[in-house]
Design a protein that fits this description.
This protein is mainly beta. The protein has 2 helices and 7 strands; from the N terminus they run E-H-E-E-E-E-H-E-E.
Length: about 120
């Protein structure tokens, strides 16, 4: 199957590096209560965080009891951050997919333009 990509453009007051650091925060999505078929986030725990940031792995558990890993695969905090979503728990593993979620930052005057994309791949 050909990858599917969704993109959202946003503007933020914060600098790119501040936005990138928020992505590393394992509690950033704890307020996400789910939407349509998406479950909410119950917990997020950093399992490993190397000094170079790339390879940081966070275990996310949903309010439905499923879990998956988010791994930082690209880290340029002033330009771009990418996270691979993978290693789904047994109840989700049969779906056989993975995601890359990316944030591209561009500072314009006192604001940051963010293009957030989510690409789904067959596993």
């Amino acid at each position: 199957m050909k990858p599917i990509t969704l993109k959202v453009k946003e503007t933020h007051q914060s600098a790119p590096s501040v936005l990138a650091e928020r992505i590393l925060n394992p509690g950033r999505d704890r307020n996400f209560v789910g939407q349509d078929e998406s479950p909410g986030i119950l917990s997020a725990t950093v399992e490993q965080r190397p000094a170079e940031v790339i390879g940081t792995r966070t275990r996310v558990t949903t309010d439905e009891g499923t879990s998956y890993i988010e791994e930082i695969v690209e880290w340029e905090p002033d330009k771009r951050v990418s996270v691979e979503v993978k290693e789904f728990s047994d109840s989700m593993a049969s779906a056989r997919f993975r995601f890359i979620e990316s944030w591209e930052f561009e500072r314009i005057d006192d604001k940051t333009k963010v293009i957030r994309s989510l690409t789904a791949f067959d596993a």
